[in-house]
Amino acid sequence: MLLFSVLVAAVAPGLALLTYFYLKDRYDYEPLHMILRVFLMGILIVLPVMIIQRGMMLWLGDNPYLESILISGGVEEFVKWFVIYHIIYNHTEFDEPYDGILYSVAVSLGFATVENVLYAIAGNASVSAMFLRALLPVSGHAMFAVIMGYYMGKAKFIDDEKKKRWYLTLSLVLPFFWHALYDVIMNTMVNHWLWFIAPLMAGLWYGAVGKITRANNRSPFRFVKREEEVKL
């Protein structure tokens, strides 16, 4: 019974956050089957990511900074970015800037949910530990995804090729930077990590809310919906 409760606590944060971001789509809800497919992609990339990370650890050795910056933040964000760019970026359902955020979050939360379940099984974690992980790593994955998806959305709907490449670069580099910083704090600070991670997460959430609003405000469906409301 305890194991079941822990597993539920491991899965619930990812689904709750995915629901939150899905409902934040103000003008054109994405098909649920697409969201679930992308969430499943996030689940499926866990194994190849783990294999790559294991190989890099054997190659680079046991260094907490390299592990935080390259092995964890670098590999995970690159693989998620690769999936979004090559599978979702040119998809017909990616038809407004907010979709970049939503699909990036779906991939990241699929990944984070499996990561959470594996932690719960391997570490004999408690429900309280799962609550803390919901506030930190699971939420962190979502925040990095918001940044990735926001800039992918900007790149998708701009005609200037130079700016398009710049935004695509930011969609990879910025999530990598924040993920690496998060992992450096968690992996190298033993006693005072909370004093650094709490303001970091607060800042990421504050930035995410602004990005959600700005992405929705650039939706091509915004004026269509207003016209429909006026007619009613």
Task: Describe what this molecule looks like in 3D.
It is a multi-pass membrane protein. Its main location: membrane. The chain crosses the membrane at residues 6-23, 35-56, 68-88, 100-122, 134-153, 165-181, 193-212. One of its GO terms (cellular component) is plasma membrane. α4 packs antiparallel against α7 (161-188). The protein is globular and about 50 Å long. The protein has one domain (2-231). The chain has helices spanning 2-23, 32-44, 46-60, 64-88, 97-123, 127-156, 161-188, 193-217, 222-231. It is an all-alpha fold and 232 residues long.
Helix-strand blueprint:
Elements: H1 2-23, H2 32-44, H3 46-60, H4 64-88, H5 97-123, H6 127-156, H7 161-188, H8 193-217, H9 222-231
Helix pairs in contact: 1-5, 1-6, 2-5, 3-4, 4-5, 4-7, 5-6, 6-7, 6-8, 7-8
